[in-house]
Amino acid sequence: AEDEYNVTTGYTxxxxxxxxxxxxxxxxxxxxxxxxxxxxxxVVHDGVAYYFASKLSAERFQADPDxxxxxxxxxxxxxxxxxxxxxxxxxxxxxxxxxxxxFVNAAVFEKYLADRDxxxxxxxEKWSSIKHVxxxxx
Length: 138
What we know:
By secondary structure, the protein is an alpha+beta fold. The chain has 6 helices and 6 strands, in the order E-E-H-E-E-H-H-H-E-E-H-H. The strands form 2 sheets. A 4-stranded mixed sheet has the order 1-2-4-3. A hairpin with a 5-residue loop joins strand 1 (7-11) and strand 2 (17-19). The longest helix is centred in the C-terminal third of the chain and has 15 residues, at 116-130. It is globular and about 40 Å long.
């Protein structure tokens, strides 16, 4: 499962890797705003630690994690469409039909915006074939 999620190098005190660069995924997926999370409000889900800006955000996440987690394990959706796994930066995010997508940088985000529907359709088709493949093997 280690390569199914885009995690920050290093570990939290409980040994779990950090997801979404330590940014609150509830705020990001509902408001498309970057709110730094706090380790005091950490929640570990599926072996990955997520930090939240408030206890309320952490509670919302615990009640329905899939609603707030970025698609494709937090990897760049554009890269997934190309069959790759690149970092998903929360500063380059889009919410489509209630789903959160991350992108590696501003240039890739602009390319995605120019062909959004096609990129998301292709990424959805590719993800199942690369989800369990290590980053190094792609």
